[in-house]
Inverse folding.
C-alpha cells in the first residue's frame, strides 16, 4: 500500500479530519489533501510530524513495515519419562510467560525511545510564543485582511492563521512573513458568519506553537470588529 493510501487510512482510523491533522502537523488543510491524493509528498520533517500526530511509525506510514515471519517449527521432543511429566509442564509454562513478558517490555521501551536527532529537532521552537500588532479590516463581506507580528521569526519558520466559525469548523491559511510581520487576506468559508475565533501558529517543520489572538471577529466591507485575546 502506498504512502497516500496509508496516510488516509491512519487519519480516518483515528477519527481526525484533514483540518485537525493539518493543525497538529502545522500545515494547511490543502497540503494534507494533496498528500492524500498523491499530488504532493511531504518532506522528512513533515513525515516525522505526521508519524507523531498519528502515533505510528515512519515504516508503517510509508508502507515499508513487513509482517514478521513465523518461527521455524521445533523438532518433536524426545519422550519424557512419566516421573518428570508432573513438573515439566508447569516449568515450561513459567519459562514461556517470562519470555513473553520480557519481549513485551523491550518492545514497549523501544517504541518510546526518541532518536537524538528528533529530540534536538523538536527543541528548535521556544517554549513561549506571542504576537503583537494584531489587526483586521474588512475587504468585502466575505474577505478580511489581517496583520500580526510574531515573537518568533526566521527563514526556518512558517506561519498560519486559522478562523474558526461558531459551528467549530476551522479555516486555516498560510500567513506570509515579510519585514517582521505576517500579513494577507483570507476568505473563511462562504461568509455569512459574524463571529470567528482567530488562532495563529508558528512551525519549524517538526513542531508548532499555537496562540488564540482574537474572539468574536466580525467583518464586512470597510469595517471589522473583534475582541483581542493576547
Amino acid at each position: 500500500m502506498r504512502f497516500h493510501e496509508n496516510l488516509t487510512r491512519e487519519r480516518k482510523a483515528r477519527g481526525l479530519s484533514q483540518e485537525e491533522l493539518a493543525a497538529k502537523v502545522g500545515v494547511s488543510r490543502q497540503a494534507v489533501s494533496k498528500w492524500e491524493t498523491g499530488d504532493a509528498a511531504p518532506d522528512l520533517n513533515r513525515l516525522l510530524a505526521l508519524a507523531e500526530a498519528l502515533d505510528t511509525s515512519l515504516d508503517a506510514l510509508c508502507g515499508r513495515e513487513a509482517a514478521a515471519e513465523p518461527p521455524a517449527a521445533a523438532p518433536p521432543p524426545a519422550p519424557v519419562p512419566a516421573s518428570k511429566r508432573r513438573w515439566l509442564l508447569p516449568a515450561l509454562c513459567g519459562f514461556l510467560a517470562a519470555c513473553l513478558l520480557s519481549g513485551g517490555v523491550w518492545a514497549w521501551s523501544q517504541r518510546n525511545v526518541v532518536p537524538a536527532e528528533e529530540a534536538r529537532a523538536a527543541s528548535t521552537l521556544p517554549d513561549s510564543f506571542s504576537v503583537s500588532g494584531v489587526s483586521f479590516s474588512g475587504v468585502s463581506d466575505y474577505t478580511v485582511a489581517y496583520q500580526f507580528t510574531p515573537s518568533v521569526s526566521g527563514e526556518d519558520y512558517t506561519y498560519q492563521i486559522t478562523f474558526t466559525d461558531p459551528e467549530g469548523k476551522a479555516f486555516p491559511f498560510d500567513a506570509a512573513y515579510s519585514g517582521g510581520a505576517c500579513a494577507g487576506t483570507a476568505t473563511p468559508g462562504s461568509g455569512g458568519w459574524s463571529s470567528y475565533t482567530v488562532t495563529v501558529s508558528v512551525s519549524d517543520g517538526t513542531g508548532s506553537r499555537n496562540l488564540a489572538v482574537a474572539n468574536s471577529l466580525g467583518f464586512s466591507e470597510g469595517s471589522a470588529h473583534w475582541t483581542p485575546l493576547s
Remarks:
- The radius of gyration is 26 Å.
- The longest helix spans residues 85-111.
- The beta strands are 131-138, 144-150, 158-164, 170-178, 181-186, 196-203, 208-220, 223-228.
- Helices lie at 3-13, 18-25, 29-37, 44-53, 58-62, 85-111, 116-122.
